[in-house]
Here is the input.
Amino acid sequence: MSRRGRASGAAAAAAELHRTVTERLANRDQRFTQGRRTIVDALTTAHAPLTLPELLAVAPSLALSSTYRNLSILEEAGVVRRLVHGGEHAHYELAEDLTGHHHHLICTTCGSVRDVTLDTKLERSLDSAFDRVAGGAGFRADRHAIDIYGECATCAS
Here is the structure.
């Protein structure tokens, strides 16, 4: 694909994401303000979930108090997911239905969080196993999330 084709595809994806976010916020009587747009765009381009300090470093135009409040509103609207893993700061990422199903590698030493995607065959196998376990308990599973804890390559060396 040409550079122009990739750029127009990315622009179309961003426009669709912004339409979805606008709808979700409107359903909660909220607007998609410039600050919220900056947060969504920063999380879209991030290669991993971000802490509040990391988000502010990536988007220095954001103010701390309004960013925290906007993250809360975006979370309530189903746009942002807050990940709390016992570290010093929560991490934030776009909701999985906006980005695609994935899991996390979490470093217990430095607190970094990295997204990982499993291959389709393994993911189907996990879904089947989880459905069996849930069904055996009379529970209907909608989705799953796997967080793997350990040490990242930097901390392990």
User: Anything to note?
Assistant: The beta strands are 50-51, 80-83, 91-94, 103-107, 113-116, 147-150. Residues 2 and 8 are 10 Å apart (CA to CA).
